[in-house]
């Protein structure tokens, strides 16, 4: 059986976890956390990066940092994971869903402006499959209406838009290091803070409402409860695991891209023959091979394909059921304008196995199975 995902593993993880155990430092913000965040700051030219317990927790922090008041609105795509929406519901926002572009499955930047009301506070974009949203246009809208931009870059670590790392373009960026993402620590994430004036508030929010981060840096001689907060810092054990992967970030990225390109070269002829659709990467975007998907004719063909692949011993999956039609979506939000693409496109998309170190043999088995399905049919 070829699995859909195999969590990234380098080998050094054991060693680093052992080191943190032997140093008697397994709670958060020890040397491995510091190594990881320094790496992100330097490599992505980010103002500040704080590790969190998950990508969802990073989004929760971002929604709180935007300071929404009950009744304030957030504009977001409906084609995303529940976490994107949850963060804002917990922050007291109303959800305003906007349609996606069929080519990238990202929020349609031309449909954002008409969804803005005097209650709008935040635009939350999702860089689906690690391929960037049209950020110049989105940042321009946010500037003109004085809105925050949160980037859900859970899938976009190591991707860029016009040379800038995803997550560093809006006010706040959120990464996930869940085992299904390109770089992993089991469960974990990070928030990128691109506005220096929010760093102190973010540190307090992450450290149970205390100014312990300043205390650790020797800036104050005792720490105290100064504002609301929660515990968003991950254990050193998890950070140690992540550090092993960041040391090999380039290699992991290249390896995934090789698999992605293998798929893409194999399926483009089928696309030209009108049998399926492949992902599209707009100019100016460099992606991280988080995902390879193809689009079928319709939901029936997709179901058949998934079944066929399973019969060949290959696990393929689909996602997402659009949030606006889910029970919580109906309760907490509404869709602005017409759902031209979100529902229709979501029914056609299927994801192929994608992970670090897929063997050439497995790549070929998967490619041959897809080809057989579409050419014989
Ligand atoms: C994975 C993911 C999240 C959530 O990240 P966790 O680390 O699992 O909490 C949020 N948004 C998107 C788009 C994701 O893919």
Looking at this protein, list some descriptive labels:
377 residues, globular, Aspartate Aminotransferase, domain 2, single chain, alpha/beta, Aspartate Aminotransferase, domain 1
CATH topology of the largest domain: Aspartate Aminotransferase, domain 2
- Which CATH class of the largest domain is shown? Alpha Beta
What count of helical segments does DSSP give?
Answer: 13
What oligomeric state do these chains adopt? single chain
Q: Alpha-carbon distance between the termini? A: 23 Å
Reading the helices and strands in chain order gives HHEHEHEEHEEEEEHHHHEEHHEHEH
Mass-distribution shape: globular
Give the low-pLDDT segments.
Answer: none
Number of strand segments: 13
> How large, in whole angstroms, is the Cα Rg?
21 Å
Helix content: 25-40%
**How much beta, percentage-wise?**
5-15%
How would a crystallographer describe the biggest sheet? 8 strands, mixed
> What CATH architecture label of the largest domain applies?
3-Layer(aba) Sandwich
Q: Helices and strands: which structural class? A: alpha/beta
Tally of structural domains = 2
State mean pLDDT (0 to 100 scale).
97
Describe this structure in words.
It is built from 13 helices and 13 strands. Helix 3 packs parallel to helix 4. The two termini are 23 Å apart. The protein has an eight-stranded mixed sheet, with helices on both faces. A three-stranded antiparallel sheet has the order 7-6-10, with no helix packed on it. It has a two-stranded antiparallel ribbon with strand order 11-13. Helices cover 38% and strands 14% of the residues. The mean pLDDT is 97. The chain is globular, with a radius of gyration of 21 Å. It has two domains: 234 residues, 3-Layer(aba) Sandwich (Aspartate Aminotransferase, domain 2), CATH 3.40.640.10; 128 residues, Aspartate Aminotransferase, domain 1 (Alpha-Beta Complex). With 377 residues, it is an alpha/beta fold. It binds pyridoxal-5'-phosphate.
């Amino acid at each position: 059986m070829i699995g859909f995902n195999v969590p990234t593993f380098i080998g050094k993880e054991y060693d680093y976890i052992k080191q943190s155990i032997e140093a008697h430092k397994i709670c958060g913000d020890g040397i491995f956390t510091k190594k990881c965040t320094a790496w992100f700051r330097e490599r992505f030219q980010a103002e500040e990066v704080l590790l969190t317990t998950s990508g969802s927790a990073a989004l929760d922090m971002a929604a709180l940092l935007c300071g929404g008041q009950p009744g304030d609105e957030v504009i977001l795509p409906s084609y995303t994971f529940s976490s994107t929406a949850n963060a804002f519901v917990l922050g007291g926002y109303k959800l305003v869903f906007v349609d996606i572009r069929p080519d990238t499955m990202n929020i349609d930047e031309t449909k954002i402006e008409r969804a803005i009301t005097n209650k709008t506070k935040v635009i939350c974009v999702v860089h689906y499959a690690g391929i960037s949203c049209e950020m110049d246009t989105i940042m321009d809208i946010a500037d003109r209406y004085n809105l925050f931009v949160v980037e859900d870059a859970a899938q976009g670590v190591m991707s860029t838009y016009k040379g800038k790392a995803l997550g560093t373009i809006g006010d706040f960026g959120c990464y996930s290091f869940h085992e299904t993402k390109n770089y992993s620590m089991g469960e974990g994430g990070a928030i990128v803070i691109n506005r220096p004036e929010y760093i102190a508030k973010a540190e307090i929010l992450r450290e149970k409402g205390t100014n312990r981060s300043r205390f650790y840096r020797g800036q104050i001689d005792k720490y105290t409860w100064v504002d609301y907060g929660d515990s968003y810092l991950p254990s050193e054990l998890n950070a140690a695991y992540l550090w092993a992967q960041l040391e090999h970030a380039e290699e992991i990225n290249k390896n995934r891209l090789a698999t992605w390109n293998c798929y893409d070269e194999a399926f483009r002829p089928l696309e030209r023959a009108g049998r399926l659709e492949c992902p599209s990467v707009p100019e100016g975007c460099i992606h991280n091979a988080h995902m390879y998907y193809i689009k079928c004719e319709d939901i029936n063909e997709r179901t058949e394909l998934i079944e066929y692949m399973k019969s060949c011993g290959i696990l393929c999956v689909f996602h997402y059921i659009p949030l606006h039609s889910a029970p919580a979506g109906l309760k907490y939000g509404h869709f602005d304008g017409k759902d031209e693409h979100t529902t229709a496109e979501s029914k056609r998309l299927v994801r192929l196995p994608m992970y670090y170190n897929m063997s050439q043999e497995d790549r070929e088995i998967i490619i041959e199975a897809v080809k057989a399905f579409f050419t014989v049919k």
